Amino acid sequence: MSKTTSHILKNRALLWLGIFCGMSLLIGALSFAYEVHSAKTSVERYVGIWEDDIARAKIFQGDPSLQNKILKQLKEVHAAVGTTEVQNPEQLTCTFSTDVPITYNSLPSGSMRVCFSSVDLALRSLLSPVFMVGILLSFFFMGFAIRREFLSRLHEQKLEAELALNKEIASISRQVAHDIRGPLMALTTLSRLSHEMSSEKKELLNLAVSRIGGIAEDLLNKGKKQEKALSAESRKADDLSLVTETLLKEYRFSHPDVTFTLHKHIRSSEVPVALEAIKVQRILSNLLNNSLEALPAVEASINLTLLERDEHWLLQIMDNGSGIPEEVLPKLMQEGFTHGKENGHGLGLYDAKKTLESIGGELQLRSRLGVGTQVVLLFPKNPEAQAQIS
Fold it and tell me: Which parts of the sequence belong to the Histidine kinase domain (predicted)?
């Protein structure tokens, strides 16, 4: 369970606990009010039976037995009765009380004050049927509400999962449309020249077809969430230098009016990186396509430079295109953002950045309007990759 989900569940539990406590207090208050009303009604209902005794108690003030008799009888009527005062009722003060008028021989003879014990009233209210029924009803309605909320959240999670799946499918579809442009352009050009195809052209055709197959297989694995189950062969390290040279053959043929150069400043003959060839091809193809779309009509050039540093391999891609405005540069590596392309998808730089960061690499972007754009790819040196490729 994620921290976010755990936090939400904790908050919901606290909310429902607060609601239950609030409902319990409300039911308790209503039950207490009912007990107070019941006590007053009981005393007032039965006090007429002892009017003669009460009247004598007021007349014979020196006889305490009458006062005690009245109190005893009232306690039998309601257990919450605490004290009574017949002689001077106004002097008796308490929180919960009732004043009962007294008549003697049908003539008004003052009143009697009866006080009730707050503790006894509270205990009786907690044990009363009103409180018990109220708590049971609150449990029932809370259970119904919690169940309804749970089903609603379950439905929302299902919808969110379906939306996420649809988004992933849409992303894969866009990725296919984006990645496949380069090799398809080469195949289109070759199809026009099939009648005079040389061995070099046949080799290029095979490379293009192979790359299309690699793209399709890679996207299929993504769609099925099986990247972790790839075989050791598909996870082996690839030579960045060899992959770059192979890809440039395709682009030189597809774009004869553009000058492609590759300069190497490395000590070793091989440049192992911890990425499959298909992913390296995807990154480079996307970046080269971006450069091609910005190149001038004449003297167009794309220069690639492979450099070696202590902990990284650097691949620089520089073009002499139109450049990118400075305020746009930070947004270009955001998913879905595109600049200067009518049918752009905003995937190339984002995908390249995400893929490089997954292996501890980095993508840097610099550009000047009217001068061109430079993309620097940093691939970490990996001893395991070196061992695999050798």
Answer: 175-383
Asked whether the beta carbons of 370 and 323 are under 8 A apart, the reply is yes
CB of 31 closer than 8 Å to CB of 128:
yes
Note the helical H segments in 118-237.
118-127, 129-179, 181-192, 199-223, 232-235
| Residue 286 resides in a domain | yes
Domain that holds residue 39: 3-141
Q: How far is residue 54's CA from residue 102's CA, in Å, rounded to a whole number?
A: 8
In this structure, are 256 and 116 located in the same domain?
no
The domain that holds 298 is classified in CATH as 3.30.565.10
Q: What gap in Å lies between CA 18 and CA 238, rounded to an integer?
A: 60
- The 10 Å Cβ neighbour count of residue 156 is 10
Q: Is 322 helix (H, G, I), strand (E, B) or coil?
A: coil
3-class secondary-structure state, position 345: coil
Total domain count, the chain = 2
- Residue 212: Cβ within 10 Å count: 18
Question: What span, in angstroms and rounded, lies between the C-alpha atoms of 127 and 235?
Answer: 72
Q: What is the pLDDT of residues 338-376, one digit of tens each?
A: 665 544 334 578 888 999 999 999 999 999 998 999 999
- For residue 64, which amino acid is it? P
User: Rounded to two decimals, what is the model's pTM?
Assistant: 0.47
Contact by Cβ (8 Å): 13, 71: no
CA 110 and chain centroid, separation: 72
Report the relative pairing of strands 301-308 and 312-319 from DSSP bridges: antiparallel
Q: 312 by DSSP, 3-state: which?
A: strand
How many residues are present in the chain? 390
Instruction: Name the nearest CA neighbour of 101 among 56, 61, 44, 57.
Output: 44
**C-alpha 206: how far from its chain's center?**
46
Task: Answer yes or no: are the C-beta atoms of 278 and 215 closer than 8 Å.
Answer: yes
Residues 136 and 252 in one domain: no
**Which has the closest alpha carbon to 309: 361, 259, 257?**
361
Helix (H, G, I), strand (E, B) or coil at 275: coil
Q: Which residue has the tokens 């600049």?
A: 339
pLDDT digits (tens, 9 = 90+) for 67-82: 677 777 777 777 788 8
C-alpha distances out from residue 224 to 33, 210, 236, 277, Å: 65, 21, 21, 20
Residue corresponding to tokens 């790359």: 211
